[in-house]
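Changelog-adjacent note: as of this version, every example in the card shows the full chain rather than a window. The one below runs 119 residues end to end.
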Amino acid sequence: MASIEDLVGRILIRVDLREGDSEVVFHCLDGARYVMQHQQDCCESVYLQDVIGDVQDLHGMVTEAYEASSEDVPALDGYAESFTWTFYVLSTRRGAVTLRWYGTSNGYYSERVDFTRAN
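Full-length structure tokens:
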């Protein structure tokens, strides 16, 4: 298992993502690929809610990358049994981008995002 911090010092040449999806792919200049995703299971939903910033700003060397989560931000539907907001912040000298993921479940399943190196 990799960590979002593994992107620090790497040069990103492409980021594949769409709001509402459950996968983001980071393509590095050296050929490495990292995948941020959630493998859906029963009674849960985890997806990329929105992107704050311009994804084009991520093209270049990553100078900062970290994860933060919160259960203090209200649930989207107002009645979720369990929910987690997870924020991934990545910066280059061009700017910063926040990927905001939303996970909800019945409380017995994961609401987290996995970050792995694909090759």
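Structural remarks: The chain has a mean pLDDT of 89.
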